[in-house]
Amino acid sequence: MAKPDPDALLRQGLARHQAGDTAEAGRLYRRVLALRPADGNALNLLGQLARAQGDLKAALALTGRAVALHPGAPVFLAAHGATLAEAGRLDEAVATLRATVAARPTDAVSLRNLGQALAALGRTGEALVPLRQAVALHPAAAEAQLALAHACREAGLREEAAIHARNAAADPALAGQAGFLLAALGAAPAPDRAPAAYVRDLFDQYAPRFDDDLTGRLGYRTPAALAELLRDSGIAVDSSLRVLDLGCGTGLSGVALAPFAARLEGLDLSPRMLAAARARGLYHALHETDLLDALPRQPGAWDLIVAADVLNYLGDLAPVLPALAAALAQGGTAAFSVEVGEVAPFALGPGLRYRHQPAHLRGLFAGAGLSVLAEQDCVLRQEQGQAVAGMLWVLRRQG
Ligand SMILES: C[S@@+](CC[C@H](N)C(=O)[O-])C[C@H]1O[C@@H](n2cnc3c(N)ncnc32)[C@H](O)[C@@H]1O
């Protein structure tokens, strides 16, 4: 029998890959590697399959090996840099992507990835350079337009930000996110909530760095503060309650809630945040869903529902509070934080989170049949050196 030809197998793998048959593509790439272990293309493509499946550890090992075996090859550098960025290894991503664009200055996707990695590191001024180059190379690329719009907003370049947000809005897939950014710039009315796709992408990107950033740099301690307020309100810490953690994120809130729970479930929009929560082994179940979709499906199901640093991604809480009340058993407890502001009923803040007016919220609680057990002013976190003012509430569903 003739020996299989690795080049032919690679071509077949690529054809299956492009047709969406990832299982067969992976099998063919592995056959190439069995015949030719240093085949950079097979390593790189297998790495891209792993990345698309969310296995960033495997993806990094594969793309990293392609780069190590073929140093300086721009295609492999580009894929490895993008994967490093997705894994939150931002300094390494910047170095790798800088090497990529040095070798291939017109690689608009790598320029965008470089700009986004720099922006995520807070190096906004530097980020503007590759992002502007990416947009100049491909003005129709809406993702680059949106990334540049965000970087401009962070750099205080509001007019330039609005121009690029409008350009991004031409793509129907990004119109919601671009419109949200325009609203934060004051160039469009604030929608009732942050688009789910915006929240999902934001937290998917943030997931690898979330815990370190929040508990370290940003001084976030809302979950512990809510747990303390629950205890002060007489909620027993005796592992007896059915507890739902809305917007559970990576599970920092689950850590604080576990001592109350006989059963602890979490839900979130972001698969990457949920994967980090799953890795803690704390939750009995985790669900990828929007809280506004999930709550109406669970009437009377929970003794305690908590939303730590979540309701600030929703503007209009009028539909949320009755849904929350209805998902509680009679006498059940809700606890959450909000960012506070003067404008009624809510306003979209510069950080793209909503601020709620406490007096308006108290009216909504009463309308939803929720009575106040405790409320507390607090500092939710630090942002650009400024304290973010918030409030914590503990409410009871009236019988
Ligand atoms: C700042 S994090 C807080 C995570 C966690 N509660 C904690 O205290 O660490 C906000 C989380 O809420 C999630 N989120 C925001 N809006 C949501 C919605 N409408 N439905 C479900 N999850 C949402 C986000 O995906 C994100 O993971």
From TrEMBL:
<dbReference type="InterPro" id="IPR019734">
    <property type="entry name" value="TPR_rpt"/>
</dbReference>
<dbReference type="GO" id="GO:0032259">
    <property type="term" value="P:methylation"/>
</dbReference>
<protein>
    <submittedName>
        <fullName>Methyltransferase domain-containing protein</fullName>
    </submittedName>
</protein>
<keyword id="KW-0802">TPR repeat</keyword>
<dbReference type="InterPro" id="IPR029063">
    <property type="entry name" value="SAM-dependent_MTases_sf"/>
</dbReference>
<keyword id="KW-0489">Methyltransferase</keyword>
<feature type="repeat" description="TPR">
    <location>
        <begin position="6"/>
        <end position="39"/>
    </location>
</feature>
<dbReference type="InterPro" id="IPR011990">
    <property type="entry name" value="TPR-like_helical_dom_sf"/>
</dbReference>
<dbReference type="Pfam" id="PF08242">
    <property type="entry name" value="Methyltransf_12"/>
</dbReference>
<dbReference type="InterPro" id="IPR013217">
    <property type="entry name" value="Methyltransf_12"/>
</dbReference>
<feature type="repeat" description="TPR">
    <location>
        <begin position="108"/>
        <end position="141"/>
    </location>
</feature>
<feature type="domain" description="Methyltransferase type 12">
    <location>
        <begin position="244"/>
        <end position="333"/>
    </location>
</feature>
<dbReference type="GO" id="GO:0008168">
    <property type="term" value="F:methyltransferase activity"/>
</dbReference>
<dbReference type="Pfam" id="PF13432">
    <property type="entry name" value="TPR_16"/>
</dbReference>
<keyword id="KW-0808">Transferase</keyword>
